[in-house]
Amino acid sequence: MPKRKAKYFNYSPKKDLVLFLVLCVLCIIALVLYISQRANKQGGNDLFWTSKNTKPAVPEEIYADDFDIFFDSFSGLGFIDSNQSSLYLNNEAASIMFLPDYSFNPITVSEGANLELEYFNNFNDFNGPYKDERCLEKNCLIQDGFKLSYNKHLLTLPNEIKTANLKAVSIAMLGSKWLVGFTSQEGEKYRGEVFSYDGKKFTLLKLPSPIISDYFGVFGFGGEDEDFLVIYGAYQGTAYRFRDKKVIDISKFFDIRVMKGGFKAEVIKTKNSSGVNWYIFSLTNNRARILKLWQNGTEDIAGEIVFDLPMSTSENTQGQSIEDESISFKLKESKDTGIFFSSAFRKGEVVSGYDFIDRGFKNQTGGILTFLPIYFSDEKPLISLKEIKLSQIKVDTYSADKIKLSFSADNINWREMPLGQNFTFKTYPHFFDSFRLRVVFPSFDNKFYSPFLEEIMFKYFCTRKE
Known about the structure:
By secondary structure, the chain is mostly beta strands. Helix content is 8%, strand content 44%.
């Protein structure tokens, strides 16, 4: 029986060799065409550059996708375009607000007046010794070092206080009672405790958490019986507001920049048609300071400003005045047009009198703040936005829906950014070397209102042209 042949392709070595050679030729032709095309793109027709014709190849544009964040907490003017901004940066508060409207006006002191005795009799050095006297009508609480007397009768300190560990005691008065603050040392830490005193007994104030600090501090107080501030005045301050049986943490307004190394605070609460404004000044020698907390007509504290003093001060590296400088205030009256204080400023042995008037803010025409988040020179990459991931600002609650944020790539055309959400806005394929963000404050009818802007964050996806 004949064998059946397998059905394979007809194999011929000669034919395969011819096919292989044809394929090689085609590949060479394709390579030559590709190199020629590349050379034409580079501006010449030469396939190769020789040592006598060393024209460098121009690289193709490279696009790199990136995710970037712009963030500013206003520790300085770094990202702010001052030439296109009208709002005010308060350096100590590290925040943006309207330009404040206030003045210190020198006054002529009547003959025989003793400003030192009238304004500075309860001032102390930060580390003591401490002496003070606070009277409600004919009843007086007197402090002498770590001892307390009521109407000249020595008081026994609260059982919670261990006298051996005491480092500071401070007193103040409200409408019908006194507050007493104790600072004790526990190992390398300091503990702060506050009591109210009604002329009969001490009552411990309950705080959200114990005041335990790495830094020594002295308590300061002020306000009314049902609405007052407690401030632990250390290098890094701790503060609470007691209002209608609620305790609110306001420590963010008393950070390192504001506390000037630490001081005993004296608090003055004022009211006018704008609502409540708080004024806090330092009762500590060599650490003159005056600041305000305002509420924008709401129940909560909205913002803070640290005022410039009437005379220039010289400070050492710890932010403490080199000379003996102190400033003291007494409230004269609170009107809708302004809040008026009498004041005395002590520099060395010279004491000068001033009228301090706070008229609020210059807010009648609104204001703008322009940021320049990036700027590329000719040698650095250009940028194009593909998506805005988040536009966010940190501002007081009252002003949150009144502030606008806008974007511009050319500083001419501006587009408003929705806050707190992803935004499918893009500039791609148009590239630019910088862009700007602009915060806009509206005008206000009440001069004591101002937004309090603490932070801005801008997250975006972009393409960079290398």
